[in-house]
Design brief:
The protein has helices at 2-8, 17-35, 42-53, 65-85, 88-93, 95-119, 125-136, 143-149, 155-183, 188-219, 223-244, 248-259, 268-290, 302-329, 334-344, 349-360, 377-412, 431-444, 465-484, 499-510, 527-535, 574-588, 598-610, 626-632, 658-665, 704-707, and strands at residues 362-365, 371-373, 424-427, 453-459, 490-495, 514-519, 544-549, 559-563, 591-596, 615-619, 637-642, 670-675. By secondary structure, the chain is of the alpha/beta class. The strands form 2 sheets. The chain has a 10-stranded mixed beta sheet, with helices on both faces. Strands 1-2 form a two-stranded antiparallel sheet. α19 links the parallel β4 and β5. The longest helix is centred in the middle third of the chain and has 36 residues, at 377-412. The chain is elongated and about 95 Å long.
């Protein structure tokens, strides 16, 4: 009996949940390992594997509710990540280009589809419109390839993601109208309900979700709870979209936009979101898509083959022409045009939804008693083949052109020619400042730098067990936070009778460029801390000193007021320090409000034009007006203040009063004081490539001589 029971576990299709999950995990594991060797996108391997093990293949697994639910989560995840990872500053800058691409990619395939359906397949006009809408929509099925290659912020990717939302909404709107006309429900009430539903849904997600999320992230620090909250937001937005009468994937994308500024791109939460999605949910979706594919439909009848070939030609041809039109209109490179075509050529979710709705609408019966469907079986079978072919083309084209973009980006990078390394040191002494300091370091570090982060604790009394255990606990917490964001932080422990001397010695030993020290917002600037700052920390001439106070999580900050003194750009390390502000803006999505004199503002505006962030500029000349600036700051605003040593060109006497002013006005705010050092190891007048094309905005100063002539 026991043997029979064990053997029955292997009957096909598999029913045992352990076996089913094991088979899927083996596919997810093996597909990338095997296909990467022959340079085939692993996404395609997962789809093909799904077809082989699915009900239309060897029937190893059924496409049951568990596969559908996990796969649906994967689809929502793709759209959510697209909204979460998009550069909002570029998205706003390119909104009209996104609209242009959305128009091209909807209209061109749509017109071809109507003509083919009516004049070749002889469908009526209503069915022709529904048939044409199949080709206007597309699914960002190859987006994980772009994400893995690290080119999600490219302008072509940006407008493709925006255009995807536009064309999918229009295609699904056509579906709703055709279904309504078929059932006789298109009237004033229909349009009112649809319009109001979409407006209310968009308002709730785009304006309500950030408020709720900011409150939650302030109150709840547990990492697991934060991740579960993100999943809840994805599904809630998807549900609200369906209630509004549009597809769930639109809700997931808007949820990504809503949380974009609350999940910094360098944070541990972002790392968890991407890891779980790319490891589990998205592969499940691709396998579930493969399970829909039935290779036998090629051999059913000539009508199926004719419709399938027509559908594939219209879809791929239409998307190709739309990408070429977009490339030519906006003067993009061939690789960028290829990326647009690759991302937009795959048909899956919205296509299948449209076909299934049309297939299930029965208009009547023929003379043989068979149902007459709005979209017949040949269209259904043709759509399955369209999914297979389009996903194959999308994967290969995206992989090829994505690698071209990476290569072009590397050729334009200035990171390799930069003679200065970035080494950041966190001076940790109190447990309540560990997480804020570490999160700040992760936010300000330059792109793709996974090394060069250090955490130091000075033990004042040698052989003091309690001090040693305290140091180990602090450094262990720092290392864990870094590891959760996939960043290595080197722990350092030093025995020294003098705290300042110990830190300065470690700066010399490890070639530190930036020292970050923290302030407890409950205590503020104490007299002893001010003394140590001006008489100790700032005496080192090697590293910039950053003094940070956090009264709320850095991810919840909406806007930074950045105050820059006159002549700051003359300081040797100013541009290195300004880079930190740029990284905060790019990695968090927060708005930057620059305060400076006319010359400073014009200079930074030129830099912004080359490397875009969301920023405003305010002329500011009188440092006696600082209290008024502090008074204008709202909830969730923070301050970044560029400071200077006494003998530096940018020093103003009012800087001596900054600690007292901050204690009085910003005790409950986040602020960062930046003291650039006098060190000058970089030739800032050296000519180099255009920073707008640089993959690592690592030394703005390298191009000052050419950019600001």
């Amino acid at each position: 009996m026991f043997t029979i029971l064990k053997v029955s576990h292997f009957d096909l299709p598999l029913e045992d949940p352990v076996l089913k999950f094991l088979v899927v995990l083996i596919i997810i594991l093996s597909a990338p390992l095997l296909l990467n060797k022959i340079k085939v996108p692993h996404l395609l391997g997962l789809i093909i594997a799904g077809a082989i093990i699915g009900p239309n293949g060897f029937n190893i697994l059924t496409r049951d509710s568990s596969i559908v639910v996990t796969g649906t989560t994967g689809l929502l995840y793709i759209m959510f990540l697209a909204g979460l990872e998009i550069d909002l500053a570029e998205f706003k800058k390119n909104k009209w280009k996104s609209l242009g691409f959305g128009g091209y990619t909807f209209v061109i395939p749509f017109m071809f589809g109507i003509a083919a359906a009516h004049f070749i397949l002889h469908y009526n006009w209503l069915t022709s419109f529904l048939f044409a809408s199949i080709f206007s929509s597309h699914t960002l099925i190859s987006y994980p390839i772009i994400s893995k290659l690290g080119v999600v912020k490219n302008r072509a990717v940006n407008i493709t993601v925006g255009g995807t939302v536009i064309t999918d909404i229009l295609a699904l709107l056509v579906l709703a109208i055709v279904v309504g006309m078929t059932t006789g429900e298109v009237n004033a009430a229909f349009w009112t309900q649809l319009s109001v539903g979409i407006i209310v849904f968009a308002a709730v997600v785009l304006f309500g979700f950030p408020i709720v999320a900011r409150w939650f992230f302030k109150k709840v620090q547990d990492k697991i709870s934060q991740y579960i909250f993100v999943l809840v937001m994805i599904y809630l937005a998807a549900l609200l979209a369906e209630l509004a009468g549009i597809e769930a994937i639109i809700g997931a994308f808007l949820a990504g936009l809503a949380l974009n500024k609350l999940i910094p791109h360098t944070s541990s939460l972002m790392n968890r979101v991407e890891f779980v999605g790319n490891a589990i949910f998205i592969p499940f979706f691709l396998i579930s898509v493969g399970m829909l594919i039935d290779f036998t439909v090629f051999f059913k009848d000539f009508e199926t083959i004719k419709v399938a070939v027509l559908m594939i030609s219209i879809s791929i041809g239409g998307k190709y022409l739309a990408s070429i039109a977009t490339q030519k209109t906006f003067s993009y490179t061939k690789a960028e045009g290829g990326i647009i075509f690759g991302l937009s050529s795959a048909s899956a979710a919205a296509t299948l939804a449209t076909v299934m709705v049309g297939y299930n609408i029965i208009l009547g019966e023929n003379d043989l008693g068979e149902p007459i469907r709005l979209l017949d079986e040949s269209v259904l079978n043709g759509s399955i083949l369209l999914i297979l072919i389009s996903c194959t083309i999308s994967s290969f084209v995206t992989q090829k052109n994505g690698e071209k973009l990476v290569k072009a980006d590397n050729e334009n990078t200035i990171a390799d020619t930069n003679p200065e390394k970035e080494n950041i040191l966190l001076a940790v002494n109190h447990l309540n400042t560990v997480e804020p300091l570490t999160n700040l370091a992760l936010l300000i570090r330059s792109k793709n730098k996974t090394a060069g982060l250090y955490a130091l604790n000075i033990i004042n009394e040698e052989k003091n067990d309690s001090s040693k255990k305290h140091a180990e606990a602090l450094l262990h917490e720092v290392v864990n936070i870094g590891a959760s964001a996939d960043v290595n932080i080197t722990p350092l422990t030093r025995y020294d009778t003098d705290l300042i001397e110990g830190i300065n010695n470690e700066i010399k030993v490890n070639g530190i460029t930036d020292l970050i020290i923290g302030i407890n917002h409950e205590k503020g600037f104490s007299p002893s801390f001010v003394y140590n700052l001006y008489s100790g920390y700032l005496n080192n001439s090697l590293a910039d000193v950053l003094v940070y106070q956090a009264s709320q999580p850095i991810a919840t900050i909406q806007k930074y007021a950045v105050i820059i003194p006159e002549n700051a750009s003359q300081e040797p390390r100013f541009f290195h320090s300004l880079l930190k502000v740029w990284n905060i803006a790019r990695n968090s999505g927060a708005e930057i409000e620059f305060y400076g004199n006319d010359a400073t503002v014009k200079m930074i505006e030129k830099i912004k034009n080359k490397s875009n962030i969301e920023a405003r500029f305010i002329i500011f000349n009188d440092w006696n007006e600082l209290p008024k600036v502090f008074g204008k700051m709202k909830d969730n605003d923070a301050l970044i203040l560029f400071m200077a040593h006494r003998k530096m060109a940018s020093y103003v006497p009012q800087m001596q009063q900054i600690p007292n002013l901050l204690n009085q006005h910003l005790r409950e705010k986040n602020f960062l004081l930046i003291f650039p050092s006098n060190r000058n190891e970089v030739d800032y007048t050296k000519d180099t490539r255009d920073i707008g094309n640089a993959s690592d905005f690592i030394e703005i100063g390298n191009i000052v001589g050419r950019l600001f002539k």
